[in-house]
Design a protein that fits this description.
The chain is of the alpha+beta class. The chain is built from seven helices and twelve strands. Helices cover 44% and strands 27% of the residues.
């Protein structure tokens, strides 16, 4: 007689845990068949009203979570097909990796795009890659709120970029009297100076600039003033980086508060701080 594989049993139970967790807060869950890499599609509801926020889930499970724990016991390092990571990184919707531990009956989670934004695909080996899941990321009430916050934040970010990118570029070009290419996904500003010199500046806080500009104008402020201040600060940072080979963040008195060795380090730190603040802001479901 055919015997049902243990892996099939684990997969079924892990999906049941996900269904239970998400439906308890009023969200709708679809089982995706055929499976092209994403196991579930979840749509967020607020007070029984549908929203346009949704995310995919890649569900994994194991009987031996200890095999994937780092030495510090703070991260689960789980293998994922590298081609899938590249594919998911292009998704507008978040893709949440979940790992259900059969022994403890705990489900851990991590947004794949968020991990890739922070770390890149640095743990790739041949056709496999690895995602680090913090063991603090547990699918409980707090975890579900963070998933909601991250999903809303990701949608809001792309929506603001789409609506505001052209206006922002025009403002910068007018102020700098030069051509500007803004890459929202990579967080870069490419400046073609009149003398032919090409400058690439990593500008991770562009999205926050758009929010600040809206808030400022709504309160009677001058958008041009924001643009001038932003460009002036940007020029100071770029000039100092050219002269010293590092980025120094200073207070209003000129004292160095923090130093970054590369523009990538600076952009990553800014992005992580903004994400943490925005996720908290958007986590109320």
């Amino acid at each position: 007689m055919p015997k049902r594989p243990r892996s099939h049993i684990l997969e079924k139970i892990s999906r049941n845990r996900l269904y239970e967790a998400f439906t308890q807060v009023g969200w709708v869950v679809w089982d995706l068949q055929p499976d092209y890499g994403e196991d579930l599609l979840v749509r967020i509801f607020v007070a029984n009203m549908a929203t346009h926020y949704s995310f995919f889930v890649q569900a994994k499970s194991t009987d031996h979570i200890e095999r994937y724990l780092d030495e510090d016991q703070k991260h689960i390092t789980f293998p994922i097909d590298a081609d899938h990571l590249e594919y998911w990184n292009q998704f507008w919707e978040p893709v949440i990796l979940t790992v259900w531990d059969a022994k403890s009956d705990i489900t851990y989670w991590e947004p794949i795009q968020k991990y890739l934004e922070k770390h890149g695909n640095s743990k790739r080996k041949k056709k496999s890659a690895y995602i680090d899941i913090p063991t603090d990321n547990i699918l409980n009430e707090k975890g579900i709120k963070h998933i909601a916050g991250y999903t809303k934040l990701r949608y809001a970010r792309f929506e603001r970029e789409r609506e505001g990118a052209e206006t922002l570029i025009k403002l910068l070009e007018d102020e700098l009297k030069t051509a500007i290419k803004y890459d929202a996904q990579r967080g870069t500003v490419v400046i073609n100076k009149p003398d032919g010199e090409l400058k690439i500046v990593y500008f991770g806080s562009t999205n926050q600039l758009l929010l600040d500009a809206k808030d400022w104008t709504d309160s009677g402020g001058d958008l041009n003033e924001i643009a001038r201040d932003t460009i002036q600060n940007l020029y100071v940072i770029v000039k100092e980086y050219q002269e010293t080979g590092q980025i120094n963040i200073r207070d209003k008195n000129g004292n160095i508060m923090k130093t970054y060795e590369t523009p990538e380090d600076w952009a990553r730190d800014v992005r992580e701080k903004l994400e943490a603040a925005e996720e908290l802001k958007w986590s109320d479901i």
